[in-house]
Amino acid sequence: MTQTKYLIDERHLTKPRYNVNADIPIAPQPVLHPQSLEPVTPDFLSQIFPMGLIEQEVSSDRYIPIPEEVREIYKLWRPTPLVRALQLEKALDTPAHIYFKNESVSPSGSHKPNTAVPQAFYNKAEGIKSLTTETGAGQWGSALSMAGSYFDLKIEVFMVRVSYNQKPYRRLMMETFGGDVYPSPSDRTAYGRAILDKTPDTPGTLGMAISEAVEAAVTSGGKKKYSLGSVLNHVLTHQSVIGEETLKQMELADEYPDVVIGCVGGGSNFGGIAYPFLRENLLNGQKTRLLAVEPAAAPSLTRGKYTFDYGDTARMAPVLKMFTLGHEFVPAPLHAGGLRYHGMSASVSALYDGGYIEAVAVPQIGTFEAALTFARTEGIIPAPETAHAIKAAIDEALDAKKLGEKRIIVFNLSGHGYFDMAAYDEYLSGKLQNYQHPQPEIDEALSKVPEVTI
Ligand SMILES: Cc1ncc(COP(=O)(O)O)c(C=O)c1O
After folding, report:
1. Rounded to the nearest 5°, which phi and psi values hold at 378?
2. Ligand 1 atom closest to the CA of 269, numbered from 1
3. Average pLDDT score over residue span 254-270
4. How far is the CA of 386 from the centre of ligand 1 (A)?
5. Which of 448, 218, 216 is nearest to 330 (CA)?
6. Nearest 5 degrees, angle CA 218-CA 220-CA 226?
7. Beta strands in 208-318 (DSSP E)
8. Which of 39, 47, 191, 360 is such that its CA lies 20 to 30 A from the CA of 315?
9. 311-325: per-residue pLDDT in tens?
């Protein structure tokens, strides 16, 4: 009988995290202050983040230890299973072997607690009592609310309005963990009120919600810090536990991936699974393809520009060199709320620009078709974000079939979709649409990126 689950035990949690900055073959670009457009100082960053995380953000150490208190909590769900998708392979009649790393088994349902827990830990260690954040789909807000409950921190979540309306049970999950949730734009911040005055019917964006959360932190007189669930280097470093475990589990399977796939919003679950394999490519001569999958409705890598841009709409967050659609870009209200971001992590952007990773954009309806195929074969209903990775994995498996190749495919099952059933309802009742932005709209948003001379 062919083995299905590859499991490793808790001893493998002791491995430190992998920081891609140690090996990235491209000189890092400075992070800029949003007003002066000069490189940021730790003073500016420390209004937003605790020093423990700022140190990780700028570190070029290859490995960063995981504190004992964080490992204790990780043990509630880590290591997560690596599963061979035998039923899916059979349905596709492909010679490819498809594996998925099941991050949906975390208590809040996605990879997000891998960074929520250490972020809560480092804030608590510096005496912070409250964190503000944004959430798109609700997965990040749920994860941080859960982490807040472990470390007795109050969590304030600005949830993108369209998701707040689409996903009432996500809001209730956050409240169950003790979080306070507000639809963004909200009337709680000056920026939210300004947006509501101008566009009262806006669906909101992650960029706007980030602005509100940053404002709530920096105007708190030092009582609150801000926490970001993706994009930044320390977040991707926290997520590297996914890829490190996957490497071990592929050893158990006695196979090595030809392609590793993850969906990308800000890049954290993709970086989490892909970067340990990138290290093996760069240092040990492996040749795994690393494929980032984005929605056609928010195609920052495949249709954006590689340039400095603000991380948020109100221009309060640091400026990064990244693939961006422009910080004022408002993506269509697609169901993969966690992928509705205008930018991309700096390292994913630099690696894509340098040809070290690949990217593809997929349309919404195709992702739901793939999600149904997966649900009906493997039994897990994936998050709409995750369905992007599944679509690309299925396309790879069908391509391997056409070429008669035994391709080894690994994808990150970044989360489950049990709170996303309204999205499935829309798909099943034939109401779901594809969105493709006209180029002039993208050009208009791109014309607002800052002019930077470095
Ligand atoms: C299940 C799931 N997958 C993926 C993402 C995308 O984020 P990232 O690119 O940081 O992994 C999100 C974001 O909310 C998510 O909830």
Report:
1. -100, -10
2. 11
3. 98
4. 7
5. 448
6. 50
7. 224-226, 259-263, 289-295, 305-310
8. 360
9. 999 999 999 999 999
